């Protein structure tokens, strides 16, 4: 090896080491243990609201079982439900109506309703998100994770991970919420990210769609009558 090629090889190896460590920091799966009382909210309170995100679906086994609730924990105790949302792509024909987008849209309407509980101006409503927590039963796609960051939520809590969704057959855009949160540091309001909350329960809403051998969520049973296997409410 010539002196020049030796130096070149060293530079290449340093470059790849740098890229490798950068990649690791963006993709790190390390986030807070969901069983801890992070931000002084008890784990039992987190699981309560994650179950409400499942209930926000409005049915026991919709195919796109993505639900979300928005909660104000700054009032103490269990917190206060502000709004909820469920994936309504197929009902509305609107491809951006994921559970989180529906919840944010509903929250804005509720917060600014002149006859409602909050009666906020649009400017006040925009600021209000900094006091709110969004619970979604599955990790947000990058569109929704970005919307959560644009809103400036105080906390973003998810159940089932994107990796799990992909493993179970769901098409996903492979950008983790950790990466979206990591890359949004220029925004003025921080968002605390918590994942894996009640995942053992939220997973069941996403495991049956592409696996005919998997049992249906509670309140549903297999239906093979349409030529394909699906879960239908009892
Ligand atoms: Zn989404």
UniProtKB/TrEMBL annotation:
It comes from the Eukaryota. Residues 1-17 form the signal peptide. Keywords: Signal. Residues 43-181 form the CMP/dCMP-type deaminase domain. One of its GO terms (biological process) is tRNA wobble adenosine to inosine editing. One of its GO terms (molecular function) is tRNA-specific adenosine-34 deaminase activity. The keyword Signal applies. The keyword Membrane does not apply. Pfam families: dCMP_cyt_deam_1. This is Guanine deaminase. It comes from Apodospora peruviana.
């Amino acid at each position: 090896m010539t002196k020049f090629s030796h130096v070149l090889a060293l530079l290449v190896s340093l470059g790849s080491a740098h890229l490798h460590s950068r990649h690791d920091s963006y993709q790190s799966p390390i986030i807070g243990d969901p069983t801890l009382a992070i931000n002084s909210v008890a784990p039992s309170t987190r699981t309560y609201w994650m179950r409400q995100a499942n209930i926000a679906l409005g049915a026991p086994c919709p195919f796109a079982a993505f639900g979300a609730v928005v909660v104000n924990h700054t009032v103490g105790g269990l917190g206060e439900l502000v709004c909820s949302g469920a994936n309504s792509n197929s009902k509305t024909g609107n491809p951006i109506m994921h559970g989180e987008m529906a919840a944010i849209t509903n929250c804005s309407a509720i917060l600014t309703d002149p006859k409602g509980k909050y009666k906020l101006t649009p400017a006040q409503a925009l600021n209000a998100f900094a006091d709110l927590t969004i619970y979604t039963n599955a990790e947000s796609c990058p569109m929704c994770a970005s919307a959560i960051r644009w809103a400036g939520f105080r906390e973003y809590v998810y159940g089932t991970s994107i990796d799990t969704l992909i493993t179970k057959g769901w098409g996903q855009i492979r950008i983790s919420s950790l990466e979206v949160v990591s890359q949004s540091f220029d925004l003025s309001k921080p968002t605390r990210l918590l994942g894996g909350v009640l995942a053992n329960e939220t997973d069941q809403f996403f495991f049956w769609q592409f696996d005919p051998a998997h049992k249906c969520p509670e309140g549903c049973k297999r239906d093979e009558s349409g030529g394909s296997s699906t879960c239908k409410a009892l």
